[in-house]
Design a protein that fits this description.
This protein is of the alpha+beta class. It folds into 2 domains: about 200 residues, PurM-like C-terminal domain (Phosphoribosyl-aminoimidazole Synthetase, Chain A, domain 2); about 110 residues, PurM-like, N-terminal domain (60s Ribosomal Protein L30, Chain: A, 2-Layer Sandwich). About 35% of the residues lie in helices and about 30% in strands. Strands 10-13-7-14-11-15-16 form a 7-stranded mixed beta sheet, sandwiched between helices. Strands 2-3-6-4-5 form a 5-stranded mixed beta sheet. Strand 15 and strand 16 form a beta hairpin. Helix 5 runs parallel beside helix 7. The longest helix has 19 residues. The radius of gyration is 19 Å and the shape is globular. The N and C termini lie far apart (about 45 Å).
Length: about 350
């Protein structure tokens, strides 16, 4: 039997993704879930009622038909130490992206900053302030400790949504889509694709507005912000939450010219989303982003079998079998007034 062209390369790609830092950090969520479940009287049953694992934000009904959204991001210490200004900037940027991924609009942020003296802390705060101004999201409070042995940063955000996008509403037969802003460059040598710090502020705000508009138009109800797990890892999280699977064409994923595929799939884009879209709405969703010059493409199809396969031409390989092994330990969504870990 003839070998399938590219099969070895695709197998190696899948193996590298599974071993990568982004996948490892997301798998830590499963440990948190297990620990919390063990500490509750009813175990996993109680946890499923208290915490929905996998969404980008907690969503609480606001009493007026909409939702308050809460999210928080913590940053790895080497990132804060090596790139303090950009870490501060990302504190606002990535939280704003989480709010948008839920169909919401950001309202305000608070930060918690630890540093060894004010000098390194100053750069983090300057980055926070720059992003606050560019995205139009006020910093309304926080906590600081300049006597710490090293740099640490966490930023939390409040937002509002009229209609939610969630990680739990992908269905078999949906088209899996990705929208990524390719108008940027790497923060070398890090895997951070920066399409934000040099972009016009009005463009940044308008691009975020696409997500709530998409939700309110009823064009999509399942979405997820591309995180440090990368485009494929984020899709895996979405699929696990919805208890479905998919086949993803890795060459269809929007990618900047000249960037190696593995590097791109392990990158964090400053603006990137995965969507599960009903086939009748695919063209409308694509046009939604094309109108603002954001790359958007159909990259695969959602299936009932909870496995994620990667495809490249004729080659296919299994990236993850969710029936055999959990990725983040996603649980069914809790009532909207409850908290969410994601």
């Amino acid at each position: 039997m003839d070998a399938v062209p590219g099969q070895d390369e695709l197998d190696a790609l899948a193996s590298a993704l599974r071993r990568g830092r982004g996948f490892a950090h997301k798998r830590d969520i499963s440990d948190v879930v297990t620990t919390l479940a063990a500490a509750l009287p009813g175990g996993s049953a109680d946890l499923a009622q208290a915490v929905a694992i996998g969404d980008d934000c907690a969503a609480l009904p606001d009493g007026h038909g909409g939702y308050l959204l809460f999210a928080i991001e913590g940053f790895v210490d080497d990132f804060v130490q090596d790139s303090p200004w950009f870490a501060g900037y990302c504190g606002v940027m990535v939280n704003a992206s989480d709010i948008a991924a839920m169909g919401g609009r950001p309202v305000a942020v608070v930060d918690a900053l630890w540093s060894r003296g004010m000098d390194p802390g100053r750069e983090v705060l300057q980055g926070l302030a720059a992003a606050s101004q560019r995205y139009g999201i006020p910093i309304v409070g926080g906590h600081s400790n300049h006597q710490a042995p090293g740099g640490q940063l966490a930023v939390a955000i409040l937002g509002r949504a009229n209609r939610l996008l969630t990680s739990f509403d992908a269905r078999p037969g949906d088209t899996l889509m990705m929208a990524i802003d390719l108008r940027g460059a790497y923060q070398e040598p890090k895997p951070y694709w920066d399409a934000s710090t040099s972009a016009p502020a009005e463009r940044l705000r308008g691009d975020l507005e696409l997500l709530p508009l998409l939700a309110e138009a009823g064009l999509c109800d399942a979405a997820k912000d591309i995180s440090m797990a990368g485009a494929v890892g984020t899709a895996l999280m979405l699929l696990e939450c919805s208890r479905v699977g998919a086949v993803i064409d890795v060459q269809a994923i929007p990618r900047p010219p000249g960037v190696p595929l593995l590097r791109w799939l392990q990158s964090f884009p400053s603006y990137g989303y995965v969507f599960s879209v009903r086939p009748a709405q695919v063209a409308a969703v694509a046009q939604h982003f094309a109108a603002r010059h954001i790359a958007c493409a159909a990259v695969g199809q959602v299936s009932a079998e909870p496995r994620l396969l990667l495809r490249d031409g004729e080659a296919r390989t299994l990236l993850w079998d969710l029936a055999a092994q959990a990725f983040i330990g996603a649980r069914a969504p809790a009532p909207r007034e409850e908290a969410v870990h994601g």
